[in-house]
């Protein structure tokens, strides 16, 4: 990757993390494919929810946009929490009426890469989301950046009268 944009914070709520990532994507990856952006926001929500609900709270959060490689860019998310327990995917079908338990499996399905590792203070989850350009969007300028799509101009005035 030739250039990166980073946002670091310790969000106390899921919407804070999601809004931070949405703003980062809007500013630095505005030509990314909308379904890929939606997946990135869903994965952000899931890993932050898990840290808040099961990890004893967030101790670190970083969202990083990297440019270059096979996709136009990628989103790298790291979330640290206080629990050393690593996320697990269900081993089989859930009983009827059971709720939850599929978040990590969903993250792993949507992400290009997802890992979790124990640390001295708990664990850290790292996720990489590929963000291909939307169809028809040109690559940004040399040096790695992406350009925002240009808005169409006003329609030309049409003659009126006889």
From TrEMBL:
Biased composition, class Pro residues, residue ranges: 151-162
GO molecular function: ATP binding; protein serine/threonine kinase activity
Keywords: ATP-binding, Kinase, Nucleotide-binding, Serine/threonine-protein kinase, Transferase
Protein name in the entry: ATP-binding protein
UniProt KW Nucleotide-binding keyword: yes
Pfam families (UniProt xref): HATPase_c_2
Gene3D superfamilies in the cross-refs: Histidine kinase-like ATPase, C-terminal domain (3.30.565.10)
Domain of life (superkingdom): Bacteria
Record's keyword annotation contains Kinase: yes
Protein source organism: Streptomyces solincola
InterPro entries named among the record's database cross-references: Anti-sigma-factor_SerPK, HATPase_C_sf, HATPase_dom
Domain spans labelled Histidine kinase/HSP90-like ATPase: 11-128
UniProt-annotated stretches for the region Disordered: 129-162
């Amino acid at each position: 990757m030739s250039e990166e944009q980073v946002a670091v914070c310790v969000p106390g709520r899921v919407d804070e993390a999601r809004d931070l990532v949405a703003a980062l994507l809007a500013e630095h990856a505005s030509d990314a494919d909308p379904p890929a952006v939606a997946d990135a926001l869903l994965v952000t929500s899931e890993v932050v929810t898990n840290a808040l609900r099961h990890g004893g709270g967030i101790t670190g959060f970083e969202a990083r946009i990297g440019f270059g490689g096979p996709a136009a860019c990628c989103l790298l998310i790291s979330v640290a929490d206080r629990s050393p327990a690593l996320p697990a995917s269900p081993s089989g079908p859930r009983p009827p009426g059971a709720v939850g338990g599929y978040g990590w499996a969903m993250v792993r399905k949507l992400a290009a890469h997802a890992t979790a590792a124990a640390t001295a203070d708990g664990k850290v989850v790292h996720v990489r989301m590929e963000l291909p350009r939307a169809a028809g969007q040109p690559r940004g300028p040399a040096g790695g950046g992406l350009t925002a799509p240009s808005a169409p101009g006003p329609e030309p005035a049409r003659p009126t009268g006889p």
